[in-house]
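Tutorial handout. Part one gives the primary structure; part two gives the three-dimensional structure as tokens.
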Amino acid sequence: MQTKHIHLIGICGTAMASLAGMLQQLGHRVTGSDAAAYPPMSHQLAALHIPVHEPYNEANLTPRPDLVVVGNAISRGNPELEYVLDQRIPFTSMAALLHDEFLPNRESLVVSGTHGKTTTTSMLAWIYEVASRTNPAFAPSFLIGGLAENFGTSFTVRPRTPDGPNPFLLEGDEYDTAFFDKGPKFLHYFPDAAILTHVEFDHADIYPDLAAVKTAFKRLVNLIPRRGRLVAFDASLNVTECIDRAFCAVERYGLLPSSFWHLSDLTHEGTTTTWTLRRKGEFFATLTLPMPGEHNAFNATAAAALASGQGVPTEAIVEAIRTFKSVKRRLEVRAEVYGITIIDDFAHHPTAIRETLRALRTSYRGRRLVAILEPRSNTLRRNVFEAELVDALALADQVVLAGVFKSESIPVTERLHPENVAASLRARAIPAQVYPDADAIVAAITPQLKPGDVVAILSNGGFGNIYEKLPQALARNEG
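Part two.
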């Protein structure tokens, strides 16, 4: 691609911010705009000196860019999009530009699924990075929907080499691509090999039901060539249905002794998880991961399985998992204030909330667990999973809920009502309160917290900067 001025509308989304850095790395002049920038992607863009204009305004498109990338959160009525259409400025989507500019002559490895994509992709990238220390052919390019702590970034683009395989590792998102392309982003990535972690109903704003979600994943599986490979979780009937007609080799992973990749002897000590991994019944490795939670052992197994099948040496896999540093906003300890531990997790679905709280129960045994939830994702803002949300939050000792993010955009009959969730939790003898926003929560909860408490803040957005406000309030309260 000739050097251009490329403007990204909605630049602070995780994938869009990553694409911005990738385009800059190729020498393009990159600008962007968003309604609200928040960490960690706002910090990454600032470190790259990529200007971010707030709010959206057609003036942000002066001087006229050569190309505009329209984020999938952008819809008609956005002033910049309307200006682009009126002025006939060339535009495209993130996924289409990624396919056209970055994926040709590379081995496309795609991590997909309702849960675990970001962590699994980060693990896979780190495995390849460790392997590249002894074999440069494994040096990965990658795009991750989060900030991988081993790299300090969400993306890397390595130069193509003529002898390949030039692996490009991608987090494959099933969300739609753009206002003009309502198909899933991952259908642009044409995987040579892929991982499928879980399949559940999610993204209730664009998928009417579970059947539609499964159709999207079936279409992804149908893109994998016969020479390719699919690593898929084995304890899900939904996954089984989605891979039933795969033309490529399929390797299942999980706790079943019959699994192609079988986990056994799973043990947890503090924040460390250890297990034995067998391949077709034969010992493969003992893996140690410095993260809590059975779900993270599954994520690491999936990454190990895909990497091994692509020729990565076992010793590199073992070393990478042992030294993996997680992803920002995944069980991330944000502060320790007077014996109170504050943890940030990117919660978007009741299943993810359940697994996060299970992991915290394992790693912080005997400590009071307080869950603070902002219903912010398009699934959590709706009442479709109200019962499942209650079950997940019931793993905490105390629950605090914020008001539904931008509740006015959800029809009343479809909207989650946090008061109903809190009432159901109280009926189970679990203290639960509802407050309108982060400031009200901080004011109410600060005097209630005691040394030894573990506070899990669950949101997939900025949550009124509660991650900074709560530690500051605790420090003032104690002082």
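Part three, for discussion. Residues 332-478 form a domain with the Protein-Tyrosine Phosphatase; Chain A fold (CATH 3.90.190.20). The chain has 14 helices and 23 strands.
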